[in-house]
Structures are given as structure tokens and as C-alpha cells.
Amino acid sequence: MEHIRFHYGSVEEIRNEAKKMNLELPLSGNTDILFRELDAPVYLRNRFAIQPMEGCDAAADGSPGELTVRRYERFARSGAGLIWGEAVAIQKEARAKPRQLQIAEENLDSYKALVQNIKETALRTQGFEPVVIMQAAHSGRYSNPNGYAEPIIAYNNPLFEKDKPIDSGRIVTDEALERLEESYGWAAKMAQKAGFDGVDIKACHRYLCSELLSAYHRPGRYGGSFENRTRLLRNGIQAAKANTNGNFLVTSRLNVYDGFPYPYGFGVSQDGSLTPDMTEPLQLVELLHRELGLPLIDITIGNPYVNPHVNRPYDRGNYVPDEHPFEGLARMMHCVGEIQRHNPNLVVIGSAFSYLRNFSVNMAAGAVEQGVCQVAGFGRQAFAYPDFINDLRKTGKMDGKKCCVSCGECAKLLRAGECAGCVVRDSDVYKPYRN
Q1: In degrees rounded to 5, what are phi and psi of residue 69?
Q2: Three-state SS for 171?
Q3: Of 208, 209, 207, 232, which is closest to residue 220 (Cα–Cα)?
Q4: Among 195, 207, 259, which Cα is nearest to 233's?
Q5: DSSP three-state, residue 381
């Protein structure tokens, strides 16, 4: 099999191709809708969000490095109303790489400077300050704080571990998880001190909170029942709210479908297939929104390390998916749309628009227009083409020669522990790390 290459020259071509496969992609030529303000329950200047994209370029103490500051300054100039920052470890053992960001009392001033620079740059270049979220993370299975794997897992998973099962001694205890709840609260407090507008208790892509959602056979207080599997996320959010005040936002980037068969995946049918089952994800989001008061949520699916075609459809990668990229786009829009339609007063952020290159804003506009989501999130597109929002506002379109080509090189750099960015569009900075 060969990769299906992106070759579409118009929105109509994309729409017709999707129809041939009996797929519905939200597409619209009314991109002006993306520049409309959002008033409540969160004020955003427009409907664009920069998604969390790790750069693996922090200093040894976890403070933002030179490339970190450069990246967020580019995002600040982008014109996005919301900048959702990348994963920031809540303690050393939680770092996925030795150069992952980690917030601490000792380096808090560096985070204050980062947020201040984002706000001042955006105000100077765009005329407004974006909402800036800090993603509080525990890498769990991917913990690698000292340059070698030190996984902290919720349970043993043969889909990930294959013929090299992780020692059961690496399974995190209930007591350690209970302490982590307060660590999330402390991280939220640090985020507010640093000037962030909110904190994300990260529960996606098989990081620790996410993995626990599928811990169906784990014994104890954090496994088995729905209540137990969601305990760390719920209590972490409550701790974050208890440790912050005022209009500070507490939210989550949440996996609502893992793309792994039961009992190793959340949001999947129990018949052994990979069919999404949104019963529990809808139950969880309703609980987070209505009972815990989350005003917005960032929805994603899949795993960028194991099945990246699920959350980042592509036409260049280290394996050929057994589906057309449009099927991945349709699945993402279905999952995001289910969350939004069942929670009309919740600000839902959608993902996976970047695959469509210069037509990605047409799917984003269609998603907002059709009620699939209220805000469109862009990750790899922002790495490659941080000025796309400015260009769209000025010219009414994106420049196809500047777009992300979905090659996956940025993710390869991250997995290798190298500084991650676009080796195609920002080659002077990032190509040396690929070599």
C-alpha cells in the first residue's frame, strides 16, 4: 500500500471526494465566521486556537528556553484569540523528556516573563491580548525525566508493551495518585501566579490522566468503575479550582476516543472493534461541565505515538493507515460534534483541521457554522505557518506554499527528544535537529 497524497485544488473537490466515500466533512466558504468574537462563557477575540505542540526545548530546570520563547512569540503574532500552551510537567518525574517544560517555585519568574511577552507581543501586533492556557501534565507511561524511560503506568497494556511488559512495580499506587491530585492544584496555583488565564488538567494522548480512563481492570480506587477511572481527573480539577481564584479558567484537553480496542481504549465499543462509543465520554464531559463548572474543553482523539493517523490524519508517515485521511477527519468531527451538540453552552474546541492545508480554514469555518465546535484548534499548522490567521484576514485565503504538509517530521523530532518544529517551513532552525 502507498500513502494517499493530498492533491485537491478546491473545496468543491474535497467535498465531492468525501461524498464518494459517504463521508460528511463540514466545509464552508464563509471564513469570516472564524473572526467573530465569542462572548460567553469565555470571552475570545476570535474562533482560532493554537493547540498544544511540545517543543522539547526547555532549559535543564524546566524553564522556557530560547526556542520556547521564539515559538510563543510567533504564536502571539498569529492573531489567535486563544493560545493553549504545551505540556508543562507538574513535577520532575512527570517530564516526558529532560527538556520538557516543568514549572516550579524556582523558575516561576521565567514563566511570568513568557506570558508577559505573549500578551505584550499580541497587544502590539494584533491590538488585543489572547487568552493563554497552561497545560499541566503528568507524562505517566511516557515519563523520561533523565534521558531514559522511567514509565509510571496505570496498568500493563500489551498493545503498548508487546513482548516487553513493563515491570508491575512501575504501576502507580492509589496513594501516589491521591498525592498527585494536590500536585495538580499546586500547578494551577503556579500558573495563576505566572499570569496564565487558565490551566488545563491534561487528560489526552495516554498521559497519566488519560490512561486511567481506560483502566477497566485496575483494582482499587482509581480503576474499574467509571467513577474510579475518572477520579484523578475530577479531583485534579477540583484541586485546581480550590487553589485558584477570580476568573481563572480550569479546563482540560480530553481524549474522548483512544482508537484502541476494549479494554485498552476509552470511548470505544466493547465488542472488540474500533467503533467509537461516546456513552462514557459524553457522561464525563457533562459531569465536568455541569457539576465541576468547566466553561470550555479541548477535544482530541487517538495517540500521536502509536496511532497518529487517528488524531493527525496524514499522507506521509512511518506507516500507511488502513483508511483514507478523510475518514480520520470525519471521525474527529463526529466525536467533537457529539460533545458540542450535547453541551450547547460549553465552549468546545475542535482538532485535526491542519491536514486540509490551505483549505483547513474552510473545514474550521464549516465546523463553527454547523455547530460541530465553537473554536477551531490548529497545532502543526501553527508550527509551519504561524501567520496563516493574519493572511486569511488580509487576503481571504491561506497561502498553500506556506502550509503544513502533514509529513510528521515535527512529531519525529519530539519522539527523539530533539527540539521540535517544522523542518519544511522553518528549516533554518529545525533541520539541524533532524540530522
Answers
A1: -60, -40
A2: strand
A3: 232
A4: 207
A5: helix
- What is the rounded CA–CA span in Å between residue 305 and residue 307? 6
Residue 129 and residue 135: Cα distance in Å, rounded? 19
Q: Residues 255, 267: contact at Cβ < 8 Å?
A: yes
Enumerate residues 6+ apart whose C-beta is below 8 A from 85: 52, 72, 132, 133, 134, 135, 196
In order of 138, 144, 145, the CA distances from 148 in angstroms are 16, 5, 7
Please give the share of the chain, as a percent, with pLDDT higher than 90. 96
Nearest to residue 257, comparing CAs of 332, 207, 323? 332
308, burial (CB in 10 Å: exposed 0-12, middle 13-18, buried 19+): buried
**Residue appearing with cell numbers 519522539:** 415
Partners of 250 in the β-ladder: 199
pLDDT in tens, 23-62: 999 999 999 999 999 998 999 999 999 999 999 999 999 9
Three-state secondary structure call for residue 33? helix
Q: Are 310 and 319 in contact (CB under 8 A)?
A: no
Q: How many helices, marked H, and strands, marked E, lie in the chain?
A: 16, 9
Determine the topology of domain 11-434 in CATH.
Answer: TIM Barrel (3.20.20)
Give CB contacts under 8 A, 24+ apart, made by 3-10.
Answer: 3/314, 3/315, 3/316, 3/317, 3/320, 4/315, 4/324, 4/325, 5/315, 6/315, 6/325, 6/355, 6/356, 6/357, 6/405, 6/406, 8/356, 8/359, 10/359
340, 374 Cβ separation under 8 angstroms: yes
Domain ranges of the chain: 11-434
Report whether pLDDT(89) > 70: yes
Can you tell me the distance from the alpha carbon of 390 to that of 410, in angstroms, rounded to the nearest whole number? 23
Residue 434 pLDDT: 76
Mean pLDDT computed over every residue of the chain? 97
Q: Which residues pair with 135 in a beta bridge?
A: 87, 200
Cell numbers that stand for 54 in this block: 511540545
Q: Which helix (H) or strand (E) holds 361?
A: helix 360-369
Amino acid at 198: G
How much is the average pLDDT of 390-403?
97
pLDDT tier for residue 432 given thresholds of 50, 70 and 90: confident
Evaluate if residue 435 carries a pLDDT over 70.
Answer: no
Q: What percentage of residues in the chain have a pLDDT greater than 70?
A: 100
